[in-house]
């Protein structure tokens, strides 16, 4: 009796857990560009005979859009996909189809969704590199390498004089005197303080496992010492030029070649004094003028 109750309870709990469930056969799918692929997505009968099904897409930049909505493909997918009870099929994929696909099912007040990550495999192209041809000893130098075509994103390797550089030079006796830093994921090769040991021909390589690795053009990088003598000479020349200019201005002023600045003459001001008490109209009826003096 106890065994029967346990079995019934197990069946009940299992059935409750499985209700309104969306299932996918593979959450990670890879496919070569221009090939077809199925994104399989099924659901339990709890949703009813005609549940609402939707497919949403989020690309690598985070932009979201509908693939299948209102029981039909959206405009940009109508000639490329087929939706059936077991999932969604692409007739032919492109690199722009890489991203996350959400399978959502809604029906009988139940809801569930699952996500499938699709990666469209694309070989890398010839990477674009930036390598300076001449740098100064002791300066910080950055070499860059980038490919924006490969999918998945490639990793990068750098070569000096046709010899591959290890990720960590300190672990190899041949490269222990070099002080570069390499980032295999973004393609940067940095020299915090470049030296004569870093002189050489450099190129980078991009590889994501699809097709042959691609290499950039090789560029010779020379390391030159700072020209201290040239800097000092330049400062001396500049000081001499300023001195000659000041002397020429002084000489021209002394000889009268420079226009003189007109001296301003003081203005004459009239200062008036207040009338005294005995000033005013005299006995003859004539007005006596107030006294004033000029400064």
What this model shows, in words?
- The protein has 295 residues and is α+β, with helices and mostly antiparallel strands.
- Among the domains are: 20-121, Immunoglobulin-like, CATH 2.60.40.10; 128-224, Sandwich (Immunoglobulin-like), CATH 2.60.40.
- The chain has helices at residues 2-18, 228-254; strands spanning 22-24, 28-32, 37-43, 52-59, 64-69, 72-73, 81-84, 87-90, 99-107, 110-121, 128-130, 134-136, 141-146, 155-160, 163-164, 181-182, 189-191, 200-207, 214-215, 219-224, 270-272, 292-294.
- It has a six-stranded mixed β-sheet with strand order 2-10-9-4-5-6, with no helix packed on it. Strands 12, 14, 15, 18, 19 and 20 form a six-stranded mixed β-sheet that branches. Strands 1-3-8-7 form a four-stranded antiparallel β-sheet, with no helix packed on it.
- Strand 9 (99-107) and strand 10 (110-121) form a beta hairpin.
- The protein is elongated and about 110 Å long.
- The N and C termini lie far apart (134 Å).
- The model is unreliable at 1-17 and 289-295 (pLDDT under 50).
